[in-house]
Amino acid sequence: MIRIGIDAMGGDFAPNNVILGAIEAYSYINADTKIFLIGDEKKITEVCQHYGIDSGNFVIVHAPESIEMGEHPVRAFRKKKKSSLVVGFNMLAEGKIDVFASAGNTGAMLAGSVQVLNNIPGIIRPCIPAQIPLANGRNMLLLDVGFNSDTRADVLYQFGIMGSIFAKAMMGIDNPRVALLNIGAESEKGNIITQEAYKIMNDSTDFNFVGNMEANMLFNGGIADVLVTDGFVGNICLKQAEGMYELVAKLGVKHPFFNRFNYETYGGTPILGVTAPVIIGHGVSTPLAIKNMILQGEMVVEQKIIEKFKKAMLAVSAN
Amino acid sequence: MIRIGIDAMGGDFAPNNVILGAIEAYSYINADTKIFLIGDEKKITEVCQHYGIDSGNFVIVHAPESIEMGEHPVRAFRKKKKSSLVVGFNMLAEGKIDVFASAGNTGAMLAGSVQVLNNIPGIIRPCIPAQIPLANGRNMLLLDVGFNSDTRADVLYQFGIMGSIFAKAMMGIDNPRVALLNIGAESEKGNIITQEAYKIMNDSTDFNFVGNMEANMLFNGGIADVLVTDGFVGNICLKQAEGMYELVAKLGVKHPFFNRFNYETYGGTPILGVTAPVIIGHGVSTPLAIKNMILQGEMVVEQKIIEKFKKAMLAVSAN
Looking at residue A234, what is its pLDDT? Predict the structure, then answer.
């Protein structure tokens, strides 16, 4: 049985969109998967009644407080012990749910991951990946896209390990080709950190390292299935891609490729490297986005991502 | 009188495209501007004869050697004293030409700028800007796009000074709004270097600093006319924009906006912060690109960019 915890109060249109998304997901999840709606019980029941949804399809966990989008994430996480977000993290840490997903305050989600869950032993820094649509119809995994503004070479190498495992398990790519985002293909190119990361990754047999890759290949995939960078650069790449999406819309350019940038397709992005699965949704999440966030959560548990990360880190430390 | 030195042997299609571009530029430059073609005199004369071009329109400076595209830039620059590129830099340093432009080996151009010209007093690191076309028809200046892979906060602040002067003189933007490329708008966002750079830029009155800007505004301009970043990030942004240009071409998407990414429009990119004007052209330069490289060179001299940089640095050090 898989138990998916959802922050019913998370996101700009909560709890309505969360509950509508949960009921959409309900027809897709396994028969023995349970969706836990964490939030104000009265409000959840009211919304279910309003839309004629059978609230008996869900396990409702009462959490009377909620962390708003504008609140200081770390302070709110410490103070609001009865908020849906804090209750969700505690349930996850106590093993009462298998995955926790929220479209709420992103900073509070990051704070919770660090404060309640801790890192998987051996992992220096967690990270956030994003799937970049490629012109050939496939996706490439870019990571980190924003967890770490400052990084180190050995941290980038660990992103390669996590990215490789994630791409295989979640994207169905066998022996994923892992590249380092850089400003030239040659091994000596880049800044001090990428130069050092290149050496570590090239010496490693922990994943299929294929070398440096430049950003002009971001939308054709180039040589890579997984592209490693620090959270500062990765976030800028992702935002620039968003800017491109907005640009073509503004210019009136239509092509099905650009629809694949729609965040609703994935519904959220996981935090990789912490001891339990956490998925961060977009603040403006629609019911479709929430549905896909829940399905992604189920798959992360089914694919035993955390166990695979733990095993990989044990293998690394044994070498 | 403005004397523009051109590396006749620089670029994949030299000397043909260089000479064809020079003769195109000839009808646009001021009557008292002189184009110096630096390269193998015999080859230059042959090409002129082949195309029926009057070589008397140019000053031909004989340089029997040439640095090839694949050569190690620093080694080639040291060894090939009689190459068109080294002769050009020496003429520039000796004041025999007012600007030097080449579509040849970029690394050798950077090496020459550092080894022969030196930095303007007070400038810590030179940089390379690029004009990014915006959806509103204007351009934004992004710098640095590749000179410095590792940087410091005070170096970013100096890029703000140079970018502001360049945008006013070369792009006709009065009191240019200078922003710092970052992963959030708030002052405390970013990595250690951008956090510190924000403080220095915000405290400064040397240019019109408007704060942090995110990369999703790269093609609409957001709040800025000049966007400052380090050469690693700037190069990745520029390459990703190139990737977008290639992507839309591959998808068959047509819109006049994307034509503005054509490198031929500007013909080359200047190196800012060294003691004399240097312009680097694209290796595949067409005659049109060479023509625009020459016209940009003339404008850089007319606009007294170097003098303006020197004056600004004196003002800064006097504070």
Answer: 98
Per-residue pLDDT of B17-33, as tens digits, reads 999 999 999 999 999 99
Contacts with A137 (C-beta within 8 Å, 6 or more apart), sequence order:
none
Smallest Cβ–Cβ distance between B217 and the set A217, A243, A257 belongs to: A243
Count of beta carbons in the 10 Å neighbourhood of residue A8: 31
Report long-range pairs for A135-140 (Cβ below 8 Å, ≥24 apart).
A135/A219, A135/A220, A135/A221, A135/A257, A135/B247, A135/B250, A135/B251, A136/A220, A136/A221, A138/A221, A138/A225, A139/A171, A140/A218, A140/A221, A140/A224, A140/A225, A140/A226, A140/A227
* Binary contact (A149, B250; C-beta < 8 A): no
| Contact: B183, A236; criterion CB under 8 Å | yes
Q: Are the beta carbons of A216 and B232 separated by less than 8 Å?
A: no
**Residue B219: its chain A contacts at CB < 8 A?**
243-244, 246-247
Identify the helix (H) or strand (E) that includes residue A165: helix A153-171
CA distance to partner chain B, nearest, from residue A191 (Å):
5
Provide the residue type at B255 as one letter: H
The pLDDT confidence band at residue A167, using thresholds 50, 70 and 90, is: very high
- Subunit contact B248:A251, Cβ cutoff 8 A: no
